[in-house]
Amino acid sequence: MKKTVICGLVAALCASAALPATAADGAKISDGVVRIGVLTDMSGVYAQVGGKGSVIAAQMAVDEVGGKVLGMPVEIVSADHQNKVDIATATARQWIDTQKVDMITELLNSGVGIAVQKLASEKKRITINTGAGSTALTNKECTPYGIHYAYDVFALAKGVAAEVIKDGGKDWTFITADYAFGQSLEANARAQIEKNGGTVKGSVKHPLNTADFSSYLLQAQATGAHVIALANAGGDFTNAVKQAKEFGVVGGGRSLVGLLIFITDIKALGLDAAQGLKFTEGYYWDYDAQTRKFGEAFMKRAGSMPTMSQAGVYSAVKNYLKAVEKAGTDDADAVRAVLGEMTINDEVIRNGKLRADGRLVHDMYLAQVKEPKASKGAWDLEQILRVIPGEQAYQPLAESTCTLVKK
Amino acid sequence: MEFKQVLQQAMLGLYNGAFYAILSLGLAVIFGLLNIINFAHGALYMLGAFVALIGLTLLGGWLGSPDLAIGYWASLIVAPVVVGLLGVVIERTMLRRLYQFDHLYGLLLTFGIALVIQGLFTQFFNTSGEPYPGIPPVLQGATDLGFMIFPKYRLWVVSVSLAVCLGTWFMIERTQLGAYLRAGTEKPDVVRAFGINVPLMITLTYAFGVGLAALAGVLAVGTVQPSPVMGAEMIIKVFAIVVIGGMGSIIGSVATGFLLGMVEGVTKVIYPEAADVVIFVLMAIVLLLRPAGLFGKE
């Protein structure tokens, strides 16, 4: 925290010193520098999903353009929001007011995402949220400058619910993390299950950061449902899967479904415990030559393969800079307009189109965790079963409750 | 609500209670004899789990020979010893300087130590942790208890915990060494006059207490991902249990550890949303009715 303040002061001093010299050619870039803020969880439960890796991903996108756009330098600033809304908004406000940050990305955690998106939009700044899941970001809470990248809970639930029901898993029960994200994930999954002709037999809620899931697993098992869906993430998810195996909850026609799984969770669990899980994924490094190119470059710098959120940060920064270049300015309205016209196809995002509600609609993947014997390397963890085209994966624009959508 | 279901949850709760009991026992021993509120206990519990994990998966590679890996059984001894040695260092270099001051200084220092240890491990292992692949086959699988299928590993942990708690109680309350320990905290000068090395005794007590935490950490790797934050989540509940049992009471910490594990388990079926707070509600009630705790001396 202190470091960012000091860096900010130094940067502000440098910027003001440099201003007279660059004022002429930098007229279209406010204060002569394009600053991008990576606001993420650096130390908490989701630090491995985003954190330092996301800062590296953002820097990779900046390095690709030689650190410059329209002849002006591009800078990355970063901070830890500690999953606390007050810290996140205070940081965002300071970034925008004193450090002239032009775009804020990552924003892992839905509560943080909604608050910062609102604040930034009031100050006419673009936010590109790659880390939070809640669909509220592009419905009730949508803003003209808020963009939701990478994935959301609607897409996560839809792909996997349809697939599992098709395979015969008709009755479901939930083990849900008892806070905004878990509830929203469960609600979205329920809607999809019912739409596909399945039924929900029960649901049990657990507090965030639970070490022992045995009780919840036995309660879920007692409902007699064939599919036990885990509407949680990170450490809660990994502990639940591990203990499901211990109690033999899975098998005999009963299966486990993870509604949000990051590649780092699979790595943490090990293939022995995670094998066979089906889930929806926004990016997988070993999908094709292009995804491998980014994945392997990231691996070299970060020491792990990117999660869909980290990969999203890379693509978001890259395309934001492209849009600044095309617009000839870093003015938020102009950049947002260009982003809306672009079709995004890069190492991470396929067939991406940005809608009026801020949702980036792009191809998602139905993935399955590999068996240990099918895995050829430390990060050879997933098999992509099929591609889910963006229009099928995401909530249709007509159903969006965003006030910016013309009806 | 069926009776059988309550029984099942109580049985699952007993398993969590086993951890509460070992951890609060360590805290009680340290508080009873050193008057230190050891906030580093959670971090040292985590360290125990990581000694087991590193011993199994990384140590062989570091030393250049996979045969040097430390398996699960050996970890049950090695982890408490390694963490106990770290305890000796902490006590000799830092805690020792604080005995003359208020409890609060010890609490703050150990809290700081916990943050440092946790931060270092987060740096290297990240917050999701790693799987522990070394549970011996003999402890895998489950056994039929009549009213439920119960994993063998959990039965093993409950029995180890009971044995360790009883052993510790016996040592402190019923042996000569225990008598020295208790006397050493009450009247160190008198005990020293008998030719007993009191500072050494205190160092070893601290090492023993944190060794217990490390043992709990090794036991935990069978069901929980070893992760740098595992101790931070556990320690707050364990402190509540120590308070309910009565600060420094050995029998109190063990009994309330097991009891509250079961209460928590049953709450998970009756009203799951309250499972996380039930211990704190009980703590508030006990503090109102018996400020010294259930087994504490007024």
TrEMBL record, chain A:
Coiled coil (residue ranges): none
Ranges of residues in domain Leucine-binding protein: 34-370
Domain of life: Bacteria
InterPro entries in the record: BCAA_transport (IPR051010), Leu-bd (IPR028081), Peripla_BP_I (IPR028082)
Keywords assigned by UniProt, alphabetized: Signal
Record's keyword annotation contains Signal: yes
SUPFAM superfamilies in alphabetical order: Periplasmic binding protein-like I
Record's signal peptide: 1-23
Matches recorded under Pfam families: Peripla_BP_6 (PF13458)
Claim: Flavoprotein is one of the keywords in the record: no
Homology family: Belongs to the leucine-binding protein family.
Name under which the protein is recorded: Branched-chain amino acid transport system substrate-binding protein
Organism: Niveibacterium umoris
UniProtKB/TrEMBL annotation, chain B:
Membrane topology according to the record: Multi-pass membrane protein
Name of the protein this chain belongs to: Branched-chain amino acid transport system permease protein
Keyword NADP appears in the UniProt entry: no
CDD domains: TM_PBP1_LivH_like (cd06582)
Transmembrane feature ranges: 17-37, 44-64, 70-90, 102-121, 153-172, 193-222, 234-262, 274-293
Pfam (any one): BPD_transp_2
GO BP term (any one): amino acid transport
Entry keyword annotation includes Transmembrane: yes
Gene Ontology cellular-component annotations: plasma membrane
Annotated localization: Cell membrane
Similarity comment text for this entry: Belongs to the binding-protein-dependent transport system permease family. LivHM subfamily.
InterPro entries on file: ABC_transp_permease, BCAA_transport_permease
Taxonomic lineage of the native organism: Bacteria, Pseudomonadati, Pseudomonadota, Betaproteobacteria, Rhodocyclales
Annotated GO MF terms: transmembrane transporter activity
Keywords annotated in UniProt: Amino-acid transport, Cell membrane, Membrane, Transmembrane, Transmembrane helix, Transport
